[in-house]
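User: Sorry, what's this?
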Amino acid sequence: MALSGIQIYKLLPQTNCKDCGYPTCLAFAMKLAAKQAELSSCPHVSEEAKAQLSEAAEPPIRLVTLQADGHEIKVGNETVLFRHEKKFFNKPGLFIRVRDTDPAEDIRAQVAAADSYRVNYVGMALSLDGFAVEATSGDPGAFASAISAVRAASARPLILISRDPAVMAAGLRAIDGESPLICGADAANWQAMAELARQHNAPLAVLGNSLDELAELTEKIKETGVKDLVLDHGARSLGAALIRQTQIRRLALKQNFRPLGFPIIAFAGNDAPGGQAVMAAQAIAKYAGFVVLDSFAPETVYPLLVLRENIYTDPQKPIQVQPALYEINNPSPEDPVLVTTNFSITYFSVANEVESSGLPAWLLVTDAEGMSVLTAWAAGKFDAERIAKAVKGFNVADKVSRKRLVLPGHVAVLSGELEEELPGWEIRVGPREAVDLPAFMKQAL
């Protein structure tokens, strides 16, 4: 039974030391009861109290981890229903499904293509998380062979899909020593599947045709000693999946309903044009922990990776690019150095305009804590001192022979101060808008 805020408060040191980040122990206790804080934030709580508070301190959605040869995907541990309340922590894993009825050569080719797919997004390398192997044939040997074909092309984590315990056992033997997600247990096979999960120390996906059935099954399976569970609510249509995923998340977070306090697996297969992408996007936005795609296509995967990154960033912190000196269109030492901040939209606005013009330039991106030019200047995060520090820190003078620095037009007021900070440099004031950069570079530089 979950403890109330007052019950938790009675077990805390009650010193109001503020070391937890809250003004009083009572405030911390209330946050802990609401699953909006972690017990580890209090460095003074006794071991005896920790034991009593273990249930209250446990996240409402269990953390489940898949690992394979250095690759790891963590899902769960979420504490809020909406990201603006705090943030979402563990991004859902994106998996590509293959079937054991496909030829081994086709499986290896598809897996190799998906495994090698990388995209650079505002300085972050995005990629898929793993593969789901489904035993469509019902043949243990074919299932094991398909898993071996996947392993020949990728070392990423796996989801194994079969409701036949004998087939699943053969698949697990094919990757002996690993702990894939076993998918899945249902009302008919849960005892055998739970035993396989226990033997292989693997998480287990549980399928229920209703939330009541799901809750009943998870309670039975937990009694066997298997704690790392994933929920398959059985809904495959867009509307039904949205309803059930929202109900599960609300029950886990708002009602602290432990039988449904586990990550969700969503299957995004859909025959309608664009249907797979729509279902996967909904699953990412609405609470799925694992999302299984029926096929790999860069034009589908790229927007999903970007969407996932946007949703699972801290809403109080803008998306940033890495501060650095970037080369655009193979610049020479004679070409100008343009200056901007590390706010992603600002960076891409400048970089895209210059790149599309075909004009070579160096782009110096300064650390402005992810703010745009005017916002950073107003906040004191984009000034002559910081720009000069970036010029020196990235050894810009060693890369250019003609020392020309072009400031954004909105901060022309910094030109005089920057000349004092960087003697020997020619400080130019560029246009206010990125779209005017190509014309400015052609006429004034």
